[in-house]
Amino acid sequence: MATRARRILLVVASIVIVLVVAAPAALWLLFDEQDLRARASQYIRQQTGRELTLRGPIRLSFFPWLGAELRDVSVAQPAAAGGGPFARFAEVGLRVRLLPLIRGAIEVGGVRGAGGRISLAGYQLRDLAVSTGAFGGGEATDVSLRFTLVPDDAPGVPVALDGRMVFHVAEQRLDLSDLKGTAGGMSFAGRVRAQRVLDAPVFDGQLETGTFNLRALLSQLGIAYAPADAKAMTAVSLAAGVASSPARTELRDLVASLDGSTLKGAATMIAGATPSWDAALAVDSLDVDRYLPAAVAASAVSSPADPYASLRELVARVELSAQRLRAFGLQFSGVSAVATARDGVISVAPIRGALYGGRGELAARVDVRGKEAATYHLDGTFTNVSVQPLLADARSISALSGTGDLSLSLEAEAADPSRLMDALGGQVSMSVRDGRIEGADLLKFLAQARAMADTLRGKPAAVQPDPADRTKFTRLTGSTTIVRGVARSRDLKLEAPDLAATGEGTIDLVRERIDYLLRARSDQAGNVAVPIAIEGPFDAPAYRIQAGAAVRDAAKQELKKQLEKRGLKGLLKIP
Fold this sequence. Notes:
Largest sheet: 28 strands, mixed
Oligomer: single chain
Radius of gyration: 37 Å
């Protein structure tokens, strides 16, 4: 946006330059119209590198003003830029004072342009109209500018600008003050000082907007954006100091409001074939999830042919700090991060912050150099975090609580960003202490399994279940290997004062389902390994004792005891 704003300012300055310089140069030549056209074109070519063409008739006036009325005026791009059409006006009018002109000074009595069109890369300024009062001698005058900024295949944005202008021609200085304008539904105000406007324009000023709907403005400019929250980017405002030259554009003392969040900082854009950005930003509170693209049904808008094309051209470095941040469902505070982008590799590292009573550090990288797909990497560690709210916010298994440490190394390769989970792979390990498994009492399950075995031996099945319906543990550890969105674990271990368990199984992150098998033992239940199946969706898993296996294990243990009593231990090979 800064690049586009700077281009528009340059365009306005170019219009003034052409209208102020071309017509006086023509007036010096007076009556020979054909010679006037040739000399005016030569002068503009020498001064700006652009080709001026005067197709329509030229009307001149001489006293008390020297004036020119031109029709069908066009200016081409410089030859180095291809020489294509740059600007065209149906009508151009200009008046200059006679006596200052004799002294070698230029004082303009007014500039008028109508029916203009200017072509920029991917955009056009249509229905361009500009008018001014007298200027050139240091006096202030009114200036008015109207046009419609029209991108390809979009309705466009009507722009109106009014203000006061002082143009010191000899010093090549242009001062614009009391600027007020509108662009679509956005109102703005500010001031601009431009120097060396005929050579290499340098701008410095202040810009402030009212609150506006940025999503609506983007739509008018042909920029498709459908965030997860329909109200995202509908209440935006900003104020900043602006400095711009052919080499760079700076935003100083930036203060922006984004849907109630306040953002402060500074940014610099370095011009070039591929512009580069450098920014330092601080935000009080930001919900990133609101601004992520919404999931779109396959029958709706299709994904772009190359969703990563714009990222390959991005060159940037951004330092970000946030008091509170929500991203991918997780809540962070005191966040600091550094993001860089160059040559198709976007890196955000380190990302540090507090979360769920602990600390976390992450490093993320996206490699979009490949033509077919992008590769995503995420490495991180979390220490002393409260597990239950973290898992709940991550829409994972919320029945587990405790204080834990977590490490992860994930990667995915996908042609479509919406298919990342299907391609997810990597490693995750965890260690949770002093926690609980809600909704399941493993000791109760063991008692039920023991009761089944006792019943088979002719003993009554007396089971007193624990009404708390939870399993407390001192330590829970495990690691998983993820392949194509399915996490598989073989080394789950649970330790408790009266209980021990091991487990293995899968967690389908795409379908959000769990399929696990625990083998629990307790001295209170005869140290029999009881298989307990955990199956179902994350939010409502079902627990089921595999009774047959439990009874078989109990029978084996009973047979071993009887053989030992009779001194026949080892006679039969019982696993």
